[in-house]
Amino acid sequence: xxxxxLQELFNNITHRDALLRRRSGESTTPDxxxxxxxxxxxxxxxxxxxxxxxxxxxxxxYRRLPPTEKERFFARLAAxxxxxxxRIDAAYADYREARDNTSLQALFExxxxxxxxxxxxxNLASDGTVExxxxxxxxxxxxxxxxxxEAIDADFAHLFGSWFNRGFLVLKRIDWNTPASILEKxxxxxxxxxxxxxxxxxxxxxxxxxxxxxxxxxxxxxxxxIFVEVALCKGLPNRIQPILTGEGGGVEDPEDADSAxxxxxxxxxxxxxxxxxxxxxxxxxxxxxxxxxxxxKYFVTLSPVPGFRRWLEECRHDESLxxxxxETLGExxxxxxxxxxxxxxxxxxxxxxxxxxxxxxxxxxxxxVARFHLGNGAELHRINWLGDVSAKGLKQAAGLMVNYLYxxxxxxxxxxxxxxxxxxxxxxxxxxxxxxARKMAKGESSx
Length: 447
What we know:
seven-stranded mixed sheet, about 55% helix
């Protein structure tokens, strides 16, 4: 069967449906009630061609909803498109009586919220996947004030986890020859170290010692899901500014490099938050680089430490800590605090304590970047004083940056220990700094 012919036919049906709506005056702003009715009609449809047209119509209506109407639509989704209790009770009674696979499957189907089938049908539309990702982005913005909508988010996460699994992802290298439409998105989505202009982007992509890789998904087209920037170096880098400016920090000939430094990893789609791409990306990029440059020995990050400066402020006002320690931290308020050598002797050990021992409510490291890399099986290898002296770096982390080291033979063991016991794999230097911080907190000499 000619699938391109069928796709063209479905697109023509959708286009014709849109023309009919415009002619009938349906181009005016809809309300959430009209969209709910369109969703009900989609669930009741039993023909593929009509379902595609209905899905396209529903998504077009959603795009035109004002923010308040979107909020009301999500509330209706939570209340009216959930699983049906009576159906669950009946299916459970059948399973309890029969105890066979058929009744078990019926119970599974009864427990599934109707929203999930609705989302699957909306995905039939052209660009349906993209539209659903945008819909979840709108939903995420509402969750803090409307926790009752979390069940809808769980449905999105469940479906996206399947739709965006590793088997569907395509790794592509991004370079100066990549289409401009994609390069513009790289500039827009860079979340770690802002790309200033096209010249800045060219420095990051076109130099011989730079690499950039991104994951794409066939249903999303030229929208990157996540990308990583890499600098090829001799030795492990400890400062980001030379890498960003291109004035040092790299090598002239890639064959001279012994280290690949991941200095920027950016998730591009807010609507895919919580869907894991980064661990797959790093591991596959390591394989790509090893194949291109087999002499590479070290795969390491140069990572920010967001939230550390705020945590230092909490330490500064923690009266359980020695007064001398708190007074030293007070010197961070000075305009030229970077020149104070004794601050380095205090801040680096505290950073080790923060990254190794400070945990969130789930027992994981407090720092989100640490959670990401440690969860991927990396080792907390080195803490770099004044690694990022940009305004952002000073504000977020008192200028600190961290190297997380990916040792291929240790990744699986580190990942398992972290997942099972929240164990932070760290180098002897970091462990020494953490012990020094413990002594400092007790007012003991670190010597």
